[in-house]
Amino acid sequence: MAEQYQGGALDALLKPRSIAVIGASRQQNTIGNQIVSNLVAHGFTGPVYPVNPRAKSVSSIPAWPNLDALPTTVDCGIVCVPKEHVLGVAEECGINKVKGLVVISAGFREIGGEGVERERKLVEIVRRHGMRMLGPNCMGAINTDPEFRMNGTFAPLMPPGGKAAFVSQSGALGVSVLDYATELGIGIGQFVSVGNKPDVSGNDLLLQWEHDPAVELILMYVENFGNPRRFLEIASRITPHKPIVVVKAGRSVIGARAASSHTGALAANDSSVEGLLSQAGVLRAGSVEELFDIAMALSVLKPPRGRRTAVITNSGGPGVLAADALGDYNVDLVDFGPATIAKLAPLYPPEASIRNPLDMIASANASGYGTALDAILDDEGVDMAVAIFTPPLGVRTEEVAEAIGAAAGRHPEKPVVSVLMGRAGLPQGKAELLACGVPAFVFPESAARAVGALIRQSEWNRRPAREIPDSQSLLVKSNCVREIFAGVRSRGERKLTESEALAVVEAYGIPIARSHLAHSAPEAGEIAEEIGWPVAMKIVSPQVIHKSDVGGVRLKIENSRDAADAYGEIVKSVRTSVPGAQISGVLVQRQVELGREIICGITRQKGFGPLVMVGLGGVLVEVLRDTSFRLAPIDELDAREMIDELRGSSILDVFRGQSAADRGAIEQVLVRLARLGADFSEIEEMDINPLVASSTGAIAVDARILLTGSDAIYM
């Protein structure tokens, strides 16, 4: 792969052969001075040209009055002049054939007002001259590869070299990230601060790093996704070969928009981002600390072959904490095989616990750790191990670390993660372990997080390629849907009646409960007789969203007289509760057999396009908020993963005398619903609620569809 790599589109920014610093300053503690100093101090391999019309030299390097005076064309121009001069400098760079522009200067879109227009003009200049630009309002870029060795930032330190690439949307956070990476000894090959990212974005950097052999792990701090669907496309290609770990800021719900469907309200929070990252195989970290926990493991370990994990410790408490934390990541703490127990039992006193977690008690020494790890890693039923050490008197942490590292080295096919407790800050023995390819953490929870990420990456690496079905293969009746939508539009409306919504659902091959609309009490009885008992009856009115709240639903009706009576009761209750409501009639529907109530739906968010959702809870879904999202369209494996992500998914299994629900039928509903959302951009929001799942299939009982206010496509 390395010999085939021909470079990337952003090499002028990340791997430049020459750099001009425009706005270089002789004054200490200024950005222009710090950048020149960093380039020199950290050994940039090409020429550096400070540009300052009022200085003869900067940091003992000859300065130049402007780009026209330079003896050669440069690859990259780093701009740190006041905002008022940036446009002129950018134009000058373009005229002088500079390929890459790094605009450190602030005062653009982030300040609003005139800054927005200033940024628009800057982008126009960049594109007119065919340049690529980092920033504005960014920190710059770093490359630790000895061939380039560039610190083109104002950060005062250079991280240790390695195979990880890091992109940050926050410059201030970038400084902390570099400091933290240096402290932990995590190798950063390339670091990029994108700032306002009107040109080079996170997606562009993913494309740059996709085939770069110098990059094996990608870390990202993201505040927003400019083009989520493009991110999904690129990241999905990368993650089976190179892990991507993301910290996404903005988890909290600042305010959910008003929505006529559960799906729209639920998607207004972080669920859509969670779905995007899961669908792309991206590992999500909840904080920068968590990101580095994961990065420390991924930077030195290959993913395990499975999730069967063993824990060894010299203290019961940390072992229990580790077991609890590993359980949060669905890690399997397996029983040791008989041969392994036979090896371990003679080695430890009776008070030791020869099970998983293995508690060797406080008397365990370095030799005991090495022997125990050898025995456990020899066990065919174990895929990886966590070794926890709490230093007692008389046992040196460094010696235990060496023993753990040596045992790990004898079993390279099975990852080992360590926890060295009992010291403030970084653990002693960490360097010895990292040299052996064993990440060392201070707390069991951090190790568990790393193990969970390794397992998730392993499973993603083995995931089959997606096979998204098209409308033709699903044998859907899209023309029928177009006719229904046209009829709704012709009435000047956006909301479909329930009968129309169910007809749309049925057109896409999703089973529905048989139903007809009644316009009078006698007709209700006749329809019920034809459909078959028992029946449910529900009001049909564009003004009524939650029917049961206004007395608009009757269930388990067993005869024609009761059906006729129910018609009158429903109409009277709705007219009383919702004065002026337009009542189209009452839907008489064959009552579906007992099953699990599920909600699934479609909504749209700008950039994300159509999103498909599944959740548990029926009417309680917005209370339970047990949902999963994906960008439509999806395949059956996507649908299966959505269901598995639900916290309460086990309710679909055998439960309180009920047979297991047909998960395959639910998967088919989600695939077809997602196809519907992808095919028809005019669907703004849609619910099937409930979808009743039983051992014999899944049936849509109620449906709601709201069309867009125009033909706008939410992409």
Write up what this structure looks like.
The chain is α/β, with parallel strands linked by helices and 715 residues long. Among the domains are: 297-461, Succinyl-CoA synthetase domains (Rossmann fold, 3-Layer(aba) Sandwich); 514-591, Dna Ligase, domain 1 (2-Layer Sandwich); 596-707, D-amino Acid Aminotransferase, Chain A, domain 1. Helix content is 36%, strand content 20%. It has 24 helices and 30 strands. The chain has a seven-stranded mixed β-sheet, with helices on both faces. Strands 15, 16, 17, 18, 19 and 20 form a six-stranded parallel β-sheet that branches. Strands 25, 26, 27, 28, 29 and 30 form a six-stranded antiparallel β-sheet that branches. Helix 11 (316-328) runs parallel beside helix 16 and helix 20 (521-531) packs across helix 21 (560-577). The longest helix is centred in the middle third of the chain and has 18 residues, at 444-461. The chain is flat, with a radius of gyration of 31 Å. The two termini are 35 Å apart. Mean pLDDT is 91; it is low at 254-260 and 711-715.
Put the structure in a nutshell.
With 715 residues, the protein is of the alpha/beta class.
The helical percent reads 25-40%
Overall strand count: 30
The total count of helices amounts to 24
Query: What is the radius of gyration?
Result: 31 Å
User: What is the beta-strand fraction?
Assistant: 15-25%
By CATH, the architecture of the domain at 297-461 is named: 3-Layer(aba) Sandwich
According to CATH, what is the topology of the domain at 297-461? Rossmann fold
Poorly predicted sequence stretches spanning 5 or more consecutive residues? 254-260, 711-715
User: In CATH's first tier, which class of the domain at 297-461 applies?
Assistant: Alpha Beta
Shape, principal axes of CA atoms: flat
Distance between the termini: 35 Å
CATH superfamily of the domain at 297-461: Succinyl-CoA synthetase domains
Strand order of the main beta sheet, please?
9-8-11-10-12-13-14
Structural class: alpha/beta
- Average pLDDT value? 91
